[in-house]
Structures are given as C-alpha cells and as structure tokens.
Amino acid sequence: MTEEIFTGLKVVELANLISAPYCAGLLANLGAEVIKVEKPKMGDDSRRCGPFPNDIPHPERSGLFLCLNTNKLGITLNVQSPRGYEIMLELIKEADMLVENNPPRLMAQLKLDYDTLKEVNPRLIVASITPFGQTGPYREFKTEAINISGMGGLSLTVGESGRTPLTAPLSLGHYQAGGMAATATIIALIARDKTGRGQHIDVSELDTWAAAVTGQLVSAYVFKGMKKTRSGYRTSGSVYPTEILPVKDGYVWLIAIQGFQWKRFLEIMGDGKIPDWYANDPRFQDRREMAIHWADELDSHIVPWLKKLTKEEFFTIARENHLPFTPVQNIADVLNDPHFKERPFFIDVEHPETGVLRYPGPPFRLSKTPWKIRNPAPLLGQHNEEIFCDRLRFTKKELERFQLDGVV
Questions:
Q1: 20 to 30 A Cα–Cα from 182, which one of 172, 231, 249, 386?
Q2: 374, 7 in Cβ contact below 8 A?
Q3: Distance of alpha carbon 106 from its chain centroid, rounded?
Q4: What is the pLDDT of residues 102-155, one digit of tens each?
Q5: What CATH code is assigned to 242-328?
C-alpha cells in the first residue's frame, strides 16, 4: 500500500469555521493525522452552516463541515477548564503541529500562545490564521469577510459602480488564507528537519488578499498608471473585450488581450473577414479607447451573434480557434463538466448521517503519494474514547466524569 506524503505527521487543530480547518484538511487528506478539537456540545460553528441535505439544518449534516473535515479524528474538549487545558498540553507534547485561527488575545489568555507552547514542545510548528495577523494595531479587531476584502483591495474591483460594497463569493478569502498557511507549514517542516526547531507561522487574511489577489492592481498602477475600478461585468483598465456577455443558454467570458486573438474572433463573426461595422469605423483603432468609450456599442454588434450559440457551441469554436474564451458555469455545469468527469475530480463519500454525497476531490495529484479521503468528517466527539482512553490512558469512568464536569 502506497503511503501518503504526510503519513506519520501529527496535527492538532483548535479552530473554527473555514480558514484553519481547510489548512488542516489539506494536510489530513495527504496522510497527516489531524485531531480536531471542538467545543463540548456545540462543536465547530460550521456545523450550523449550510448547505444541508433537503435544506434541513442538522449539526452532523452540514455540507461545509463535512467537506472541510474529512480524514480527521474529532474530539470535544473545553480548553478553558483547568483539566481541559492539561489535556490539551498532553496532545501538544506529542504533536508536530498546531493549526488555529483564534484571536491572539484569547490564545494568550488560554496560555496556548506560541511562546508558551514552544516551552512544552520545542519542535512544535504553530500555524495561526487571523484577519490581521499577530502584530500591528488591528490584531485584536473583529471582522467579517467584507472588511478584509475592502482593506485588501478586492472590493475596489467587484460589482457595479455605485452599489454597496461586495466581496468575493463563497468565503474565498478564508480558503486562500488556509491554503497559504498549509504551504507555509510545509516549508516550516523542511526547516525543522535542518534545525530541529519549530516556529510560529503568522498568516494574515488581509495580507493574503493584498498579495494573492490585488497585488496586480498595485503593479499596474506603478508601472502603467492604470487604475482599476468597479465596472460590473467588464474588467476596467484593460482592452476590449474583457467582459462577460450572454449566449443562448447563459453567459460566456471573452478575453482577447493579444491583437491576433481579437482579429481571429472578428473573422469568425464575419465568416472569414473582418465585419464592415468594425473595419470601416475609424473609432475602432485603439482597443483600450474602445473599452473606455465604445464598449456598449461594440457589445450591441457582438451579442446578437453570441445569442445564436449555446455555451458549449461557443466553447467549441473558441477551442478550435485557440481563443481564451470560456463559458460561465453554474454548479450543475461544473458537476457535469466532461473534464472533471474524466479526471475524475468529484468523488462520492459515505457518511453515517447523510449517506453518500458528492465532494470536491483532490486540488492536485501526486503520482507516488496520492491525496485521498479515507474517512468522512467525524461526528461530534466521535473519537473521544479513542484519544482519551486508548492514547492518554484515562479510564472510561474518568471520561464519564469529564463529560459530567463539562471538560469534554
């Protein structure tokens, strides 16, 4: 049997919702043993977030929780209680890594901050994911995704001009921060092999937005003086076309940065020649000026041609002519995409509370140490007996006492 790349790596997750659970989940699905520590009775807040099968809320059937927590061992533990804290330290002593996304002040109050934990386990790697990082004037501020999106620069370009601020959908920033932290932990593991010491990884969601998403806006301004603003279904500061337009059964994304791509598309619309409405108009010489001043008029010529086609017909034409155009897919399109089926990307996972559901599969493929889902997400406290009794050597009566006292 082929071992996974992180087989033998022991991770403790003390986290909530998306960013840190996603980080730990990436490690778990590559073979790491992840012990997920949840609050007694309540568990991770993501258990109360949808989607739910048949739209019926249930803490063991949250699609978000189930997807983020595959391959993890789940325990409940009140780390704010004296006994719970002692047990947490016992887990930390044997761990390679702690992944968390709690406020820095809370971790310090719990005596679970890095300065404390490195005395308990000098080889421990702690990955902390927070909105504003561990230092600076905003480190303790509470925030929502819209705040981070706005301060990080993304909201500057999302949506129609004049409407209320928007952020990227589906908690994109939390996932990106979790992915950034997972990458950093791998680098920290390599460093530990050389030095024998752990370290503290400090991931700021704000910095992640600014670096991974909107850094290009800064460089465009510095080097070209281009200012990108909110422009709805078009990308501001670019050449025409860089926009989303309708077809017979939905929408498609047109982006023709290079001149030959735009010329080839015009020839396709004109049955082998540049259409007269374009060729004979002196305004259509500079495609950046076209995007600023004449985009609506140009759309009025293109959209009637597009609406004769389905998304698939349009995509076939684009592929055959080496044009970087693509359909705008909805969830049903993605689930039935031939490319994803051929991979296969989506996989079926059976869970005792939901039966078989379809989950996103591996974000990347490793030939010798493959990503795989061995077990579904844990039920709340599912592995309490295994961890507390089999590993930490507490008796079942002690575990029962812990439950009565609110420790687990």
A1: 386
A2: no
A3: 25
A4: 999 999 999 999 999 999 999 999 999 999 999 999 999 989 889 998 888 888
A5: 3.30.1540.10
